[in-house]
Specification:
469 residues, five-stranded antiparallel β-sheet, five-stranded mixed β-sheet, 4 domains, alpha+beta, 9 helices, disordered N terminus
Length: 469
Amino acid sequence: MKPLVGARMNSLSFRLIASAAGWSLVMLVVTGLFLSSLFKSSVERNFDLRLEAYLRGLIANTELNEAGKLSQVRELGESRFALTYSGWYWQIAKIGEGDGDLLTSASLFAFKLPVSRSRGNAESSGEPFRHSYVDGPEAKRLRMVERDIRLPGSEAVYAYAVAADIADVTSQISSFNTTLFWALFLLAAGLIGAVFLQVRFALQPLRRLRRALSRIRSGEERELDTDYPVEIQPVASELNALLKANQDVVERARTQVGNLAHALKTPLSVIANEAGAKRGEFAALVAEQTRLMRDQVNLYLDRARMAARRRVLGSLCNVEETAKALVRTLRRLYADKKLNITADIDPALTFRGERQDLEEMLGNLLDNACKWSKRSVRISAARLPARHNADALMEIIVEDDGPGLPKERRRDVLARGRRLDETKPGSGLGLSIAAELVDLHHGEISLGVAGSGGLRVCLVLPCLEHARP
């Protein structure tokens, strides 16, 4: 699971979506905090202006009576000032010795607002409003506005205060923040969705390019088309040029192999004829080795000729057809041993490579198994589970019921020309050739113990992701 997650996190789509989403979220959070702070300041300012308006009305509706005592002329027009502990209060207190007169709204009942005492010399008309938060009746938090006033005809300074419960303000701010959160959440989801669609749309040509390359590898196409955006079209053109150059190099190499094989045929024929005209052990050995060399030259010459008519990329062959043809041939060759040779292969399994290569790999393995087996040889093939962002692979297993092979000797049999038993016919090249071809196809070969105790050879080779229709 970790490689899969790591691969996704290393993709262009993830980087583009993550960077855009991260930046959008940061900006939305900053915007949300700014709008919330702005709304809070606006609500508090409006609340303060309302309190200041009541405070001005309170100042205008109070005066000194004939006895020099403070009295209220008219009510403020707000019924909540008359209801006990309603949350709206006013208070007028004389500042000075003994605190003097004290007038309060009926809503305060016996409670007294904590009016500030340290004011110094206050001016009746120039002192600004003071705003603060205080604890009111029933431990409720109040927003309070104060101002010191010197009434005409009096030297005393009176502290006027109007306070109100901030629950309404808090409720408005909380409601706004909730609405703002969901609005920004929906906006963030919309932006991330839009970024996702934009990235998917923008990277679609790259996915189309990958599918086109896969079709070239599977033999469905020869080259890439150039109908891509201007940013990707040069890449497609360069890939086409690379494919063409690779094909030219391989064709030249195959031509040289054919030329070399032709050049060797004549000298080998001369040596074979000379050895055939002589008698003796040395002449027989030369004739046998010359025959082996000529067979190898003919093999690679035929392969070069046949491969020259095939494409460099996109060679395919059906595994079941190839294996069953080899099984039929080996049954005839080893008819005297009466071997039970079985094949259990997925009919849709397709090898991504040339048929001759698969025939040589399976042929050498099956032939080796038939040489050493007692009664049965089995070949099976199946597709391996798909791995993320990796080529499709298949597993081919060849098993026999022969004597098997010790673990310490298994590496030796894959060495070119190494034979562990000289009594068995052959050149010792079979398994090594199979190993070299497996390596050329970027596959794997491993030796183990079969269920019957014989040798178990496992090949892992590339195959098509999906069966051909």
